[in-house]
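Can't paste images in this forum, so I'm doing it all in text. The chain is below; anyone willing to post the predicted C-alpha cells underneath?
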Amino acid sequence: MATMTVNRTERGPFPRSSVTAVAGRTFGAIPPTALVLLGIVSVQVGSALAKHLFSAVGSFGTVALRLLFAAAVLMLLWRPSLRMSRRAWTVVLGYGVTLGLMNLCFYLALARIPLGIAVTIEFLGPLAVALAGSRRWLDAFWAVLAAGGVVLLMEGRGDLNPVGLVLALAAGTCWGLYILVGAALGRHTTEGNGLALGMAVAALVAVPFGVADSGTALMQPGVLVAGLGVALLSSVIPYSLDLEALRRIPPRVFGILMSLEPAMAALIGLIVLQESLRWSQWIAVLCVVAASAGAARGTRSEF
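Text version of the structure:
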C-alpha cells in the first residue's frame, strides 16, 4: 500500500471495528469529503494541543502520553492475542518502533518550528513513497514542484531552527517507512490486533524518554487530561472518520483530499498557535500540497 492514501502520522491499514461501526452510523449522513476534512482538522488541532503541552512536560513527555493513551484505548478495544507467528511479531515490532520514532521526531521538530512547516517537510516522506519507481514525466514534475516548495521554505531559514527542519525530515523519512511497514502489518495480522500491539510497542519506545525527561510532571491531572485529549484528537477520532470515508470514496480520492493536510496545519498553526508564515512560506506549503495531490491523482488503482 505504498501510496498517498495512508499518510498521516497516526495512520495505518486500520480495520473496521465496533467503534468505527458506531461512527459510521453516526456520521452516515455527512458527505465523505467532509469526513476526511474533519479528520484532518482533528489531527492538526491535536498537534496544536500537543504543542501547548510542551511547556508542562516537554516534547518527550507529550509523545509518551499520547502513545500511551492511544495504546491503552486500542488494546482495550481489540484485546489482541499474543499468539502470532515469528514473522508477524517481526512486522509488529518494526511497525511499533517506526511509529514511535516518527512521533518522537515530529514532536521534537514541532517544539522548534511552526506546525505548518513541520507538517509540510514531514509530508515529503509519503510523497517520496508515492513517486518511488515512477517513470511518468508528470510525476517528475510533481517531484520538482515539491522540491521547489522546500527551496522556498529554506529561503527563510534564518528564522527557522535548522535542528527542527532536520527532525521534521527525519519524521518524514519514518513516515515513508511507516507506510511500507504498515502495508506488511495488514498482510500479516488480522483485524486490529497488529495495530493495537504495534501502538503498544510504540508506547514502550516513547514512554522511557518521557519519564526520564518529565518525571512526576506526567502525573498531574491536567496534564493527563490534555494527553488523553491529544490521543483522541490525533488518533481515535481521525481513525473513525477516515475509515468511514474510505468505505464511500476511492482511495485515490482520499489521497487527494489528504494532500490538504500541510495547508490545514499551517492554518491551524495560525489560528490556534498564532504562528504566522511569510508569503513565500505559504507558497511553499501550496507547492507541496499541489505535488501531493498530483501524485495521489496519478496513483494506480491497484494500490
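Residues 43-297 form one domain. The chain has one domain: 43-297.
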